[in-house]
Amino acid sequence: MTTNTRIILTTVIAGLSTALAFAGKATDLKPVLATPGNLLVEEDFSGGALPTTWTTPKGDWKPQDGFVVGNEKNEEHHAAVLMLAQKNHNSIIRFSFKLDGAEGFALSFNHATGHLFRISLSTAGIRINKDADKKDPSSKSLPLAKADGKFEKGQWHTMLVEVQGTKVAVQTDNGINIDATHPELDVEKTGYRFVLSGGSLALDDVKVWEAQP
């Protein structure tokens, strides 16, 4: 084998490795619960700083290499939180994520008086939980749905979340489809919160649409 042949083969293999690493990034998942209306947010984190609509109540979140990377701060003794201040009632949000050391994260929805519900993802699957009311000592988190699935660390994946009235539907690029219903979901929501506990999480290609029936 000549030197030139070796170079060509190495280039092809490297190219295949890169393609596999980004296989689940910005996957065009199709909504099943609602119809996308106006595109409200489109963010690829290509700038050197977070846009003003994004805030970091907890943790360390920095754009780098065309995506944003989050980590906890040890001194805060709290999960890292990245907040997108986009009010919504019925909406569709799609984003790409990569677990770099993190065992999982949550996409959390709040309403005016506190936590509402969240989609929690781990390396082993997805859960949808109605959050407890912190102002009510007797209130507890209520499991609404769960689905098993594998999310490899170091690999990009895509998630699509639809909220329409009392219903929420979640799907991912590796074939997970999960939905839930609860009457208290049909309220105005204050934004989208990415919540990370342990390890590192990368986010990219965030899009938010109004949801139409």
What Rg is obtained from the alpha carbons, in whole angstroms? 19 Å
Cα end-to-end separation: 61 Å
CATH-defined topology: Jelly Rolls
Number of domains: 1
Mean pLDDT: 89
Considering the protein shown, what is the CATH homologous superfamily?
Exo-inulinase, domain 1
Poorly predicted tracts of residues: 1-21
**Helical segment tally?**
1
Helix content: under 10%
Order of helices and strands: HEEEEEEEEEEEEEEE
Quantity of strands, as a count: 15
**Biggest sheet overview:** 8 strands, antiparallel
Strand content: over 45%
- Overall geometry: globular
Class in CATH?
Answer: Mainly Beta
What does this structure look like?
- The protein is globular and about 40 Å long.
- The protein is mainly β.
- The chain has one domain: Exo-inulinase, domain 1 (Jelly Rolls, Sandwich), CATH 2.60.120.560.
- The longest helix has 19 residues.
- Strands 1, 3, 4, 6, 11, 12, 13 and 15 form an eight-stranded antiparallel sheet that branches.
